[in-house]
């Protein structure tokens, strides 16, 4: 059974007004004290963010429990600092983000200017274990067409600087400003993958391998494939669904590789179209089908994804729960829909943020 881990980035906000608060240093110190020096929380590029990472898990129930636990712990530590945490991929309210402390963050701010300054975005990263770099690159080559579907499932960033962007995932549009972000070509081998990474770092545009921001990549820290395409999700059930589908995609791709089946030769330009469509409409409209690249109802494309990974999910015992979770998302919508419904009911973006913080706290 492949293990799965999830990293979530959370927004630090004022508990009453909903305004983003630059309190990561204080919250991290409080979290470390609460955990007696072994905190799972880390800083991010901006002081208005907090990140945690789960342990590698084989059972999705264990992963779900851990996500709930660390969201609650983050909320407790933030409350001690006079703030709250919200699982929002962008701030609905206007904000002037502040860059965090440390040489790396200062380098990013100087090197990338406004692009770095405006990157107050919160994502969800899913790590799935692989046996080798060769298997990992074979997986990357074969999951490419399905990554926009994961983006649509996670869409949770309709607002930016106080405005409705008309996108369900505007975070992905902002994140795409980094020079190494987005979909990539088929590599064919681990050697070619690593050669490409060395070439990109060698240009001097990127500081190091940690800035390889592909939609999915080999982790430079763990023996995993890291899916980086998703927004942080408002409903805590959704990162579990993402992890379930990501593991199914990895196992399905690895089996195809071992069977000698080649990856689908989808051009990067078409993948960019599919990612744009997923960011624009989420699960509420049409998506580009990964195999035909033609627009189809989102529900049909989600069912195509489930069918694609069905055998792997049956073998891991996750098929029934994944099927139910997919139907739940289609019924209630993603975080983007929830945020817009909250705004429609209150006519206040501040209420949107404070209600989402309450839901994050659980």
UniProtKB/TrEMBL annotation:
The keyword Secreted does not apply. One of its GO terms (molecular function) is glutamate-cysteine ligase activity. Gene3D superfamilies: 3.30.590.20. It holds the Pfam family GCS2. SUPFAM superfamilies: Glutamine synthetase/guanido kinase. Keywords: ATP-binding, Ligase, Nucleotide-binding. It is an enzyme of class 6 (ligase). Its EC number is 6.3.2.2. It catalyses: L-cysteine + L-glutamate + ATP = gamma-L-glutamyl-L-cysteine + ADP + phosphate + H(+). GO terms for biological process: modified amino acid biosynthetic process. Belongs to the glutamate--cysteine ligase type 2 family. YbdK subfamily. ATP-dependent carboxylate-amine ligase which exhibits weak glutamate--cysteine ligase activity. PANTHER family: GLUTAMATE--CYSTEINE LIGASE 2-RELATED. This is Putative glutamate--cysteine ligase 2.
């Amino acid at each position: 059974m492949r293990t799965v881990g999830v990293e979530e980035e959370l927004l630090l906000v004022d508990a009453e007004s909903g305004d983003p608060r630059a309190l990561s240093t204080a919250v991290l110190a409080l979290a470390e004290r609460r955990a007696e020096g072994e905190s799972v929380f880390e800083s991010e590029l901006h002081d208005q963010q907090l990140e945690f990472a789960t342990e590698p898990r084989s059972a999705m129930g264990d992963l779900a429990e851990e996500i709930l636990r660390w969201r609650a712990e983050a909320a407790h530590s933030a409350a001690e600092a006079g703030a709250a945490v919200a699982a929002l991929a962008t701030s609905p309210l206007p904000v002037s983000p502040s860059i965090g402390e440390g040489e790396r963050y200062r380098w990013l701010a100087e090197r990338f200017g406004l692009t770095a300054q405006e990157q107050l975005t919160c994502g969800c990263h899913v790590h799935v274990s692989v046996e080798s770099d060769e298997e990992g690159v074979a997986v990357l080559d074969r999951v490419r067409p399905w990554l926009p579907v994961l983006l649509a499932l996670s869409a949770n960033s309709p607002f930016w600087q106080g405005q409705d962007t008309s996108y369900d995932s505007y975070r992905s549009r902002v994140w795409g400003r980094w020079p190494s972000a987005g979909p990539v070509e088929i590599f064919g081998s681990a050697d070619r993958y690593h050669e490409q990474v060395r070439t990109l770092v060698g240009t001097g545009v990127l500081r190091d391998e940690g800035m390889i921001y592909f939609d999915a990549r080999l982790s430079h820290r763990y023996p995993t494939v890291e899916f980086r395409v998703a927004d942080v999700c408002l409903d805590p059930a959704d990162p579990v669904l993402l992890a379930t589908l990501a593991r199914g995609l990895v196992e399905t791709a690895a089996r195809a590789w071992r069977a000698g089946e080649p990856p689908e030769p989808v051009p990067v330009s078409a993948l960019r179209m599919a990612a744009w469509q997923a960011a624009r409409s989420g699960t509420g409209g049409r998506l580009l089908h990964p195999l035909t690249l033609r627009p189809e109802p989102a529900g049909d494309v989600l069912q195509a994804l489930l069918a694609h990974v069905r055998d792997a999910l049956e073998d891991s015992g996750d098929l029934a729960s994944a099927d139910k979770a997919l139907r739940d998302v289609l019924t209630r919508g993603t975080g983007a829909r929830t945020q817009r419904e909250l705004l429609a009911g209150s006519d206040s973006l501040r209420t949107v943020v404070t209600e989402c913080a309450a839901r994050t706290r659980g």
